[in-house]
Amino acid sequence: METTPAWARCNGCKGDIDFDQLYYVCSVSTCNRKGNELRFCSVECWDVHVPVMRHREAWAEERHSPSQAQWERDNPQPPPTRQDSDRTTSAAPPAALAETDLPHDVLVVVSKLKAYVRARSGMNTSDSVMAVLSDRLRALCDEGIRRAAADGRRTLMDRDFK
User: What is the Cα–Cα distance from 63 to 84, expressed in whole angstroms?
Assistant: First the structure.
């Protein structure tokens, strides 16, 4: 397997941003904090980011990535590499817990659920409903986790539940 060095990854499409290449950053300061620098390979990738972050006024600022020589001079460690044949993330998955190690607490606010059912229908709610709903929520979360991992993210988002 041959590896190719890349300067960074696009936060939109997860593609490579090579050395000595144009890329884009968000004009909003919270998107460019140290340790959270969002970089995009195109304006289209940046444009996908805007509604997710709910920016009111933002624009894509053009930047130029450093040459490999500049980067090596400023950073003693080697640049990140991506496998040409494997375009998934290199982030290590969290340690898998055995089913018995997972918490089986009630995942819903009982009083809020009972109040909703009463307001909606005038019915009472049995306490046994909470365990069933919690199991359904766990199953939904497991599916969302799989979708986020397939997209190469370590953050569960609303779009993972569609």
Answer: 25
> What are the residue boundaries of the structural domains of the chain, listed by start?
3-83, 110-161
Q: How far is CA 128 from CA 42, 70, 71, 89, 125, in A?
A: 51, 63, 59, 41, 8
Neighbours of 31 (CB within 10 A): 19
Q: Mind listing the pLDDT tens digit for each residue in 20-32?
A: 888 888 888 777 7
Give 93's contacts (C-beta < 8 A, 6+ positions apart).
149
Neighbours of 43 (CB within 10 A): 12
Q: Which residues pair with 60 in a beta bridge?
A: 26
E-only strand ranges, 10-133: 16-17, 22-26, 39-40, 60-64, 81-83
Task: Say what percent of the chain tops pLDDT 70.
Answer: 82
Q: Write phi, then psi, for 123 (nearest 5 degrees).
A: -90, 160
Instruction: Quote the pLDDT of residue 145.
Output: 93
Side-chain-side CA neighbours of 122 within 13 Å: the count stands at 0
Please indicate, yes or no, whether the overall pTM of this predicted structure exceeds 0.90: no
**CA 40 to chain CA centroid, nearest Å:** 15
